[in-house]
Amino acid sequence: AKGKDFRRGVSMAITGGTAMNFSFYKSLGIEDPVWNHGSLDTQIQWFKELMPSICGTEQSCKVYLRKSLFMFGGYGGNDYNVQLLELGLTPLQAMNYTPKIVTAIANGVEVHAVLTANFAYCSLEF
Predict the structure, then answer these.
(1) Which end of the chain is more exposed for a tag (fewer CB within 10 A), N or C?
(2) CA–CA separation, 9 and 21 (whole Å)
(3) Range of the domain at 77
(4) Contact call for residues 36 and 22 (beta carbons, < 8 A)
(5) What is the mean pLDDT of the chain?
(6) Structural domain count, the chain
(7) Using one digit for the tens of pLDDT, what is the confidence trace for 61-78?
(8) Phi and psi for 79 in degrees, rounded to 5?
(9) Mean of the pLDDT values across residues 79-99?
C-alpha cells in the first residue's frame, strides 16, 4: 500500500490476529503459527509507524487525532480458537488464560489511547 492516502481511514486488522503475542503460544508448545500473522502489539506498532506519513509532526498528529475515530474489536476470539482447536483444551481449561488475554487487550487499548492523546471511541467485542 505504499504511496496510498490513508488520511481518511486505515485498518490495522490482521487475519488470525490475536491479543497475545506469539511468545505466549510458544510457551504453550505451539511451534508453527500457521493461524497467526500478528498480534495486537503488531497492529499498534504498524499504527505508530504509519502516523508520521499521515500527519507529520507530533503536534500535527495530536491535532489530527483529536478529530479521529478509533475502533477496537474482535480481540480474544482467535486466542481461544488456538487453545480449543490447536491445543485441544476444553473451554474450562482455556478459561484459565482469560485474565492474561483480557489484560493484553486492555494494555493494547491503553497504549493506543496514550498514543492518540484523545481517544474518541473504543469498542471491545468478545
Answers:
(1) N
(2) 25
(3) 22-116
(4) yes
(5) 79
(6) 1
(7) 878 877 777 777 778 888
(8) -65, -40
(9) 93
